[in-house]
From TrEMBL:
Statement: the UniProt record of this protein carries the keyword Membrane: no
GO molecular function: DNA-binding transcription factor activity; transcription cis-regulatory region binding
Residue span, HTH cro/C1-type domain: 4-47
Residues in HTH lacI-type domain copies: 3-57
Protein name: LacI family transcriptional regulator
Keywords: DNA-binding, Transcription, Transcription regulation
Keyword Transcription regulation belongs to the record: yes
Source organism per UniProt: Salipaludibacillus neizhouensis
Pfam families hit by this protein: LacI (PF00356), Peripla_BP_3 (PF13377)
Source superkingdom: Bacteria
InterPro entries recorded: Cro/C1-type_HTH, HTH_LacI, LacI/GalR-like_sensor, Lambda_DNA-bd_dom_sf, Peripla_BP_I
Amino acid sequence: MKPTIYDVAKEAGVSIATVSKVINNNGRIGESTIKRVLAVMDSLDYQPSGVAAALAGKKTFTIGVLVPDISNSFFSEMAKLLENNAREAGYALIICSTYYQIDREQMYLDLLIKKEVDGIIIATDPLNIEAFNKVKVRQIPVVLFTIDEMSFSTHVVTTDDFRGGYLAGRYLMENGHRKITVILEEGRKNSITRLKGFKEAIGEQNVTLSENQLYTSKSSILEAREIARSLLASEEIPTAVFCFTDLIAMVLIKEARILGISVPEELSVVGYDNTLLAELCDPELTTVAQPIKELAKHTIDQIVHSISYPEGEWKRIVLMPELKEGKSVKIIKEVKID
């Protein structure tokens, strides 16, 4: 049975009120009494209840993080960086992966509310806005991470996805590619913004995309594999494919190799995120690099600030992506673009 505050009080020979004062570091208590209570807590392995602390109006020093799929290399790498930054700020993270399922989304939001987390970082596009409104009603500080949900007004930390899509499109245009296909990431609204930027860039060179040049896949190996096989089995294979995550791009390259299609000689591929997968890919992947270290730092800084100053004005932080050139794109013809 877990030790209770009553056990600590009995063992230390003090009142429950004295133990509570030691835990909360308030009231006038002698140094010897404090040391005795702390020693008993240590010997009994007593852990004060975070929920009880929250009910007393105190912080639990926990932050919830809602991501769409932790197996996506971008979110797994971000989770590590968020955790490191949170630890430096004195907070622990509770990371929840919804896997794009509305029931999981609601279940985890309810869980985080019950855990009395001090704040929530949301990196998944809301499937049920009513579930998110529960968080709003309880005035729990929220930061939207890599998403910009207009129906949920709060702090935002993200990357300029239009710019990211534009950079990928311009790069393919500069290298002479005109037969292009796109694989969007299903379930992510920022895919639409990236697509708009991409279309803007290629449209400047009078290149357009038809519906049959647009594919959609979740950023999972199984689904990306099916989409890659479908694309590579089409009657006319493009010279280049812009994939909206590095994971989708890497799966496409692997499936092309299985079919004897050489990358980049016969098929050029551009990814998005600049995760560790981009560097490990063979050939090294050309990708749109998100500034993940800066994203993580700004996100934790913002949520911690919001916890301390909940009445502060909402901030929208938008960072700029860059194109990182690897070896997965062939130069068909160098085209100078002003």
